[in-house]
Amino acid sequence: MTPQEPDPGGHHGGTVGNSQAVVVDVRGLVKSYQGTPAVRGIDLRIRQGEVFALLGPNGAGKTTTVEILEGYLTRDSGEVTVLGVDPGRQRAQLKSRTGIVLQSTGIDRYLTVRETIAMYATFYPHPRPVDEVIGLVGLEEKRGARVGRLSGGQQRRLDVAIALVGNPELLFLDEPTTGFDPSARHEAWDVIKNLATLGMTVLLTTHYMDEAQFLADRLAVIAAGRIVAEGTPATLGGRQLATARIRYRPPAGAIPPDGLCAPPGPDGYTEITPDDVVQALHQLTGWAIDHGDSLEGLQVTRPSLEDIYLSLTGPPSAGGSQAALAGKRKGRTA
Ligand code: ATP
């Protein structure tokens, strides 16, 4: 079994068959708010060194789950172990061993980046060297800049730096790139990948499928308080088994062989889902060469992670835009 595969065995609570320590172990987690269920029996296991992504529509229960793991919320029932301790009862023991990326709105705008990180380093028993943290988040050129002068993306890097300086074993990243421009997002992904190579365990929540695809070793989709699918980005919801589709624009006046043609859709493309895609492609391209046609726009596609996600969670809900999500956890700042 690879470190990425779920362990079908029993509850070990420590080291499991593949020798990767279980960092987060959740069994039958339940939480309601004023009698309304938000989390309805979640099982989750995350191993050391994994980047694990939690996906799900607005209101699915992701933040509730994560805040229970962080020790900020109490659960109604279920077993939860984070780094071997119960966050509901021993939160103080977890504080120096976990990093939580909050929004840096509470930071003194007149301190420099380096001064800020150095100040936070004093709160921890075994901090990571300040300049190393600055390098990890790629803020070397801004180390002497005042916090108030940083761009939004740079401030988010500082948030990550603050979460890292305590040298955490487990890092919680809640929607780390919401509101970023595309280049800032890719830079942030590089930072997160960098952390994963250091062996840190990362629990990430995100609404971006490309982010989950790029960063996550494993992911789980939560819908209405339950995990509806779990796997790797390549295998979630049986994605690897999904039939490939062949799309092409049929040449005018020529009819491809039986089994390879279908009435074109509104965009003029024919789409087929053959049992044997290699064989079908061979036949189709052979036929096209014989007829001197280039099969304009020929594509072979499998469902994207987003297609799978939507099939698991239903059509997107009207509520909650990305912009609205950017303001989450307003009450909890660094
Ligand atoms: P999003 O993607 O929008 O952040 P989420 O998956 O993080 O959503 P949660 O924030 O965990 O979802 O919310 C789960 C459910 O619990 C929602 O129906 C939400 O309205 C409700 N809820 C969350 N916090 C509270 C609270 N403090 N009081 C009452 N209900 C709450």
Explain briefly what this protein structure is.
The chain is an alpha/beta fold and 334 residues long. Helices cover 28% and strands 21% of the residues. Helix 3 (113-121) crosses helix 4.
Describe this structure in words.
With 334 residues, the chain is of the alpha/beta class. Among the domains are: 22-97 and 169-239 and 308-325, P-loop containing nucleotide triphosphate hydrolases (Rossmann fold, 3-Layer(aba) Sandwich); 243-301, no CATH class. Helices cover 28% and strands 21% of the residues. It contains ten helices and twelve strands. It has helices at residues 62-70, 91-95, 113-121, 130-136, 152-164, 182-197, 209-215, 277-290, 305-313, 322-325; strands at residues 22-33, 36-47, 51-55, 77-82, 98-100, 170-174, 201-205, 218-223, 226-231, 245-248, 270-272, 299-301. A six-stranded mixed β-sheet has the order 5-6-7-3-8-9, with helices on both faces. It has a three-stranded antiparallel β-sheet with strand order 2-1-4, covered by helices on one side. Strands 11-10-12 form a three-stranded antiparallel β-sheet, with no helix packed on it. Strand 1 (22-33) and strand 2 (36-47) form a beta hairpin. Helix 3 crosses helix 4. The two termini are 39 Å apart. The model is unreliable at 1-17 and 318-331 (pLDDT under 50). Bound molecules: adenosine-5'-triphosphate. Adenosine-5'-triphosphate (ATP) is lined by residues 33, 38, 56, 58-64, 320, 325, 328.
